[in-house]
Design goal:
644 residues, Substrate Binding Domain Of Dnak, Chain:A, Domain 2, 3 domains, 6-stranded parallel β-sheet, 24 helices, 46% helix, binds FE(4)-NI(1)-S(5) CLUSTER with Oxygen
């Protein structure tokens, strides 16, 4: 039973009109959502929230009393430092594994495409294929792209194993950064190796020093950022096309009551990209018309949505907290999912609205969903079968229950590094000059999830607005891109919302002040851009006026991302409290100690107004150090914490 709430409470849940309208419907019609389940979990376990509980072995579960009165050690003798560090390291490994396994799936498809063993895939970006092949020492010359892809794919698989001392793509960082990693002993070697070693080290009785555990956790995250995720992005571009600026739309208004609607949800584009082409099949279009629909409408959710919006301009229905609400429009005939960030709860909501939830990866089945096993060897065939299934479900819709809550908003996507450089005339120089002059004071990646503990989209939108108002360029990925798109930050007209200097730069280039760089694995585009800027200035990434922020993060993947961003030299502010406060030593290491080791630290600030001040002060400090015109950081005043 969903708790009845007052309509005025809606303002506490989300800043998005479409989300609030659907939540109201959920309350009226007694449909359970993520917010109800959070409420039922409260109060959540305090020991777990502090990170000072352990269920790694069967002598436990154990906990440490933060007030010093109860137990201060687990049964094995682990203190709070070890418990918190082990838990955090495992969180990072889980996130890094998720990204890297996604990367491996793309890599296998890429390799088999080169070998001529897939259906529905091609090499779309031959230039990028050749550039990447050269990085891996694969001969290009006059060779056929498929042959190059087969050899390159085989070679890249070595990055997952143990036969390298350093990941190939880590060569993209400046020498100074490689030296930092070498000195700290955190140069990433094999992707699988670092993840397996984390699980080994955190088994009871192996690594019992919190600093040593956390250094390896940094290395594990680097195997994600400069390994698994980067491989996913590079090869997705080669297979499906490197994104170029493209116009699109966002919010639940992109769902069309007159068409068969298929929501594509998850992360891996290897299925959804085939679906885009399958849905254009004339026979299937005709079938949709025979069923009484005007056509087939694809909409994105979460990062699969970002992948499709970046490359194909497919409209975006919403981010993480919108997945159940999208079904509640009553107009989704199918929700097609691959993996990651798909709440098991969608199956129950779907039953109330006759939406078919179709799972597709054998490693990601849901009880109560229809499973159609996807295999790239028969990609197009399976793609057509899935689209047909959605069309056949159209007749089960209940038209009186359809509720589309808002009109869609325009937004731009498609800012790959290649596209940004092209807009700048092929070189980072104009961007560097704008930073030097202070027209752009710095750049910040605002990334990551939604979390029902934070007002939906508020953290992303408020933080981004404050940064652009202060002439700081913002690049976004993941659920942050959706939030900012819906808020109107991502059209060239959005330049009016920026400070005068940034606004002028954006207007002259015809770009928004907030650039969509893709899905969460595409945070590696931000790493590549940062490395290119550092190279151009012949300095280290940690010297640049850059920062990262994840104002509403929830997932293990986000922890891995934040960690590899810091380990790459970029200061990062988190908006949700991580489970580390059970160990003051771990907190001190992450918030301060890492400065000496990797030249960057974490800050944690749930209030986006205050997070913006922390970031502005950081950027001004970096500008001062580089001898660029700066505002005195201490003159940037910190607002009082919000009462909410
Ligand atoms: O990978 S931002 S909620 S959808 S984890 Fe998930 Fe977080 Fe959204 Fe994309 Ni990323």
């Amino acid at each position: 039973m969903v708790q009845k709430r007052d309509e005025k409470d809606l303002e506490e849940y989300s800043i998005s009109k479409d989300a609030k309208r659907m939540l109201k419907r959920a309350w009226i019609e007694d449909v359970e959502t993520v917010w109800d389940r959070l409420e039922r979990q409260e109060p959540q376990c305090g020991y777990c929230a502090l990170g000072s509980s352990c269920r790694i072995c069967a002598m436990g579960p154990c906990r440490i009393d933060p007030f010093g009165e109860g137990p201060q050690k687990g049964v094995c003798g682990a203190n709070a430092d070890v418990m918190v560090a082990r838990n955090l390291a495992r969180t990072i490994a889980a996130g890094a594994s998720a990204h890297s396994d996604h990367g491996r799936d793309i890599l296998e498809t890429f390799y088999h495409t080169g070998a001529g063993e897939t259906e529905g895939y091609d090499i779309s970006d031959v230039d990028k294929l050749e550039r990447l092949a050269q990085e891996y020492g694969i001969e290009t010359g006059d060779r056929n792209p498929d042959e190059i892809a087969e050899d390159l794919g085989w070679e890249m698989m070595e990055d997952f194993g143990t036969r390298r001392e350093q990941l190939t793509l880590a060569n993209r960082v400046p020498e100074s950064r490689l030296k930092v990693w070498e000195d700290a002993g955190i140069t990433p070697r094999g992707i699988d190796r670092e993840n397996v070693e984390t699980l080994h080290r955190t088994h009871m009785g192996v690594d019992n020093h919190y600093v040593n555990i956390l250094l390896h956790a940094l290395r594990t995250s680097l195997s994600d950022g400069w390994g698994g995720s980067m491989i996913a992005t590079e090869l997705s571009d080669i297979l499906f096309g490197t994104p170029k600026p493209t116009e699109s739309k966002a919010n639940l208004g992109v769902i069309d009551p007159d068409q068969v609607n298929i929501a594509l949800h998850g992360h891996n584009p290897m299925l959804s990209d085939v679906i885009v082409r399958a849905s254009q099949d004339e026979e299937l279009q005709k079938l949709a018309e025979e069923k009484g629909a005007e056509g087939i409408n694809l909409v994105g959710l979460c990062c699969t949505g970002n992948e499709l919006q970046m490359r194909r301009g497919i409209p975006m229905a919403g981010n993480h907290l919108m997945q159940e609400l999208a079904i509640m429009t009553g107009a989704l005939d199918a929700m097609l999912v691959d993996y990651q960030c798909i709440m098991p709860g969608v199956v129950d909501v779907a039953k109330c609205f006759n939406t078919e939830v179709i799972t597709t990866f054998d490693k990601a089945k849901f009880h109560g969903a229809t499973h159609i096993s996807f295999d790239p060897e028969r990609g197009m065939q399976i793609g057509r079968k899935i689209v047909r299934k959605a069309i056949e479900n159209y007749e089960n819709r209940v038209p009186e229950r359809i509720l589309i809550p808002d009109d869609p908003v325009d937004m731009m996507a498609g800012f790959s590094v290649e596209a940004i450089l092209e807009a700048l005339g092929g070189t980072p120089e104009p961007l560097v000059e704008a930073i030097k002059d202070g027209k752009i004071r710095g750049a910040v990646g605002v990334v990551g999830c939604n979390n029902p503990k934070i007002k939906h989209d508020y953290g992303h939108v408020k933080l981004t607005r404050r940064l652009i108002e202060n002439d700081i360029l913002v690049v976004v990925t993941g659920c942050s891109a959706v939030a900012n798109g819906k808020a109107g930050h991502m059209t060239p007209e959005g330049a009016k919302l920026a400070g005068p200097a940034l606004g002028e730069v954006c207007e002259s280039l015809g770009i928004p002040p907030v650039l969509h760089m893709g899905s969460c694995v595409d945070n590696t585009r931000i790493l590549n851009l940062a490395a290119a800027l550092a190279d151009f200035l012949e300095t280290d990434i940690s010297d640049l006026p850059l920062a990262g922020a994840a104002p509403e993060w929830y997932s293990e993947k986000a922890v891995s991302i934040g960690t590899y961003v810091v380990a790459s030299g970029i200061y990062t502010v988190l908006g949700t409290y991580p489970a580390i406060y059970g160990s003051p030593n771990v907190v001190e290491l992450l918030a301060d100690g890492l400065e000496k080791t990797v030249g960057a630290t974490f800050d944690i600030e749930p209030d986006p107004e205050r997070a913006a001040v922390l970031i502005r002060r950081h950027i001004e400090k970096k500008r001062e150090k580089l001898g660029l015109p700066f505002n005195r950081p201490e003159n940037i005043s910190m607002p009082e914490p919000e009462s909410t």
